[in-house]
């Protein structure tokens, strides 16, 4: 049952705050995000700068970069994902506890960037793991990463513990681990995770 907003406002003036378990849970998670401490290429330098004194990522509750995936709930894919590195990134993601989130930082992590046509570069990490926030740029500035963090926090505020829109961690029908690609003779096998990457079919225009 929803509480009257005017009554809630009057109670807050008296120092009494009324909320739900779900809102309290989401408030705690959004203000204590622990990113995984790793970087792949030049975007990682911008990520490091975001955590330093000038930009101070700690102001938003995300200052604890964890060296172990088992202690982190945010993966910032900062830089070029080569096909040699892609299985390791997915394996690290699988080792992170739920609920967990992914930020794809920079053009390379989103689509392969300037190396898109190269045979050895993955054309976006979202081919294998679900991405929550994309940051365009080559490389994006620290302000862009802060904006992505705030955007992610707004998403966490809307998470549900029950119902059709409940978190993946609380849905028993969801898989506990994501597909880790293997090194094939000519490419990664499979070339994408069909549960994550579902490209739109290409329709060629009819010849006149």
Structural notes for this entry:
The chain is of the alpha/beta class. The longest helix is centred in the C-terminal third of the chain and has 16 residues, at 142-157. The chain contains six helices and five strands. The chain has helices at 5-13, 21-30, 43-51, 86-95, 107-111, 142-157, and strands spanning 74-78, 101-105, 133-135, 182-183, 188-189. It has a three-stranded parallel sheet with strand order 1-2-3. The chain has a two-stranded antiparallel ribbon with strand order 4-5. Helix 2 (21-30) runs antiparallel to helix 6. The protein has a single domain (17-164), classed as Rossmann fold (3-Layer(aba) Sandwich).
Helix content: 25-40%
Overall mean pLDDT: 88
Report the strand count.
5
The string of secondary-structure elements, in order, is HHHEHEHEHEE
- Are there runs of 5+ residues with pLDDT below 50, and where? none
Structural class: alpha/beta
- What number of domains? 1
Reading off the top of the CATH hierarchy, the class is best stated as: Alpha Beta
Strand order of the largest sheet: 1-2-3
Largest sheet: 3 strands, parallel
From the N-terminal CA to the C-terminal CA, the straight-line distance is: 62 Å
Overall 3D form: globular
In DSSP terms (H or I, runs of 4 or more residues), the helix count works out at: 6
The CATH topology comes to: Rossmann fold
Architecture, CATH level 2? 3-Layer(aba) Sandwich
């Amino acid at each position: 049952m929803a509480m009257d907003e005017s009554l809630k406002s009057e109670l807050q003036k008296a120092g009494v705050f009324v909320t739900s378990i779900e809102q309290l849970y989401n408030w705690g998670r959004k203000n204590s995000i622990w990113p995984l401490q790793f970087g792949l290429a030049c975007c990682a330098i911008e990520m490091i700068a975001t955590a330093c004194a000038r930009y101070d990522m700690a102001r938003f509750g995300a200052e604890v970069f964890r060296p172990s995936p088992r202690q982190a709930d945010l993966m910032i894919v900062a830089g070029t994902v080569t096909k040699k590195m892609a299985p390791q990134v997915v394996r690290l993601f699988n080792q992170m506890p739920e609920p967990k989130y992914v930020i794809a930082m920079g053009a390379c992590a989103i689509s392969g960037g300037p190396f898109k046509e190269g045979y050895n570069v993955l054309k976006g990490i979202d081919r294998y793991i679900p991405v929550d926030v994309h940051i365009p740029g080559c490389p994006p500035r620290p302000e862009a990463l802060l904006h992505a963090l705030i955007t992610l926090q707004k998403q966490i505020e809307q998470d549900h513990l029950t119902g059709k829109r409940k978190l993946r961690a609380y849905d028993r029908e969801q898989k506990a681990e994501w597909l880790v690609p293997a090194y094939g003779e000519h490419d990664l096998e499979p070339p994408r995770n069909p549960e994550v990457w579902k490209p739109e079919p290409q329709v060629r225009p009819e010849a006149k």
